[in-house]
Design brief:
By secondary structure, the chain is an alpha+beta fold. The protein is built from two helices and four strands; from the N terminus they run E-H-E-E-H-E. A hairpin with a 2-residue loop joins strand 2 (36-52) and strand 3 (55-67). Helix 1 (16-32) packs antiparallel against helix 2 (69-81).
């Protein structure tokens, strides 16, 4: 039997219990073909990048599957028929990941790479001396004559 990771997106207007029922339904199909489902992760309701069938959000669910190809084909056939399933994807893998998936890992903001490439903070301006005058004739505002203001009555 082969190893697969299967993820599907369910409509936003169904409840979390209905998503769990869908997972159990597809789990039963896989087990009826002699396969088994390992890890099941419900990622919850997440925003979609673009609308899919007029939905802006979807319930995400991931299943690790160890089953023959016929079981996966049957699950995909049933998902095509089911109106609650917006999208699905099955990927053959060499081995299942241990522990939670990347979506379930809580990463702290300090662990993320910085946008500035990790450049250290340069500190306050007074450590570096005064700024050089700008090029192009724009000096300080006090150097320019002010236009008289028109009275608004």
């Amino acid at each position: 039997m082969a190893l697969y990771e299967h993820i599907f997106l369910a409509r936003q207007d169904i409840s979390a219990q209905q998503v769990d029922a869908l997972v159990e339904q597809y789990k039963g199909v896989i087990e009826s073909f002699g396969g088994k489902v390992g890890r099941v992760e419900n990622w919850g309701l997440k925003s979609l990048t673009y609308r899919i069938k007029k939905n802006r959000k979807a319930h995400y669910a991931l299943m690790d599957i160890d089953a023959p190809a016929a079981a996966v084909h049957e699950v995909e056939r049933q998902m095509r028929i089911n109106e609650d399933v917006l999208r699905y994807m099955t990927i053959a893998v060499e081995a299942h990941e241990e522990g939670p998936s990347a979506m379930m890992q809580k990463r702290d903001r300090d662990d993320r790479p910085r946008r500035d490439g990790g450049r250290p903070d340069r500190g306050p301006r007074e450590d570096r001396g005064p700024r050089a005058p700008r090029e192009g004739g724009f000096g300080d505002r006090e150097d320019r004559p002010r236009r008289p203001r028109e009275d608004r009555a």
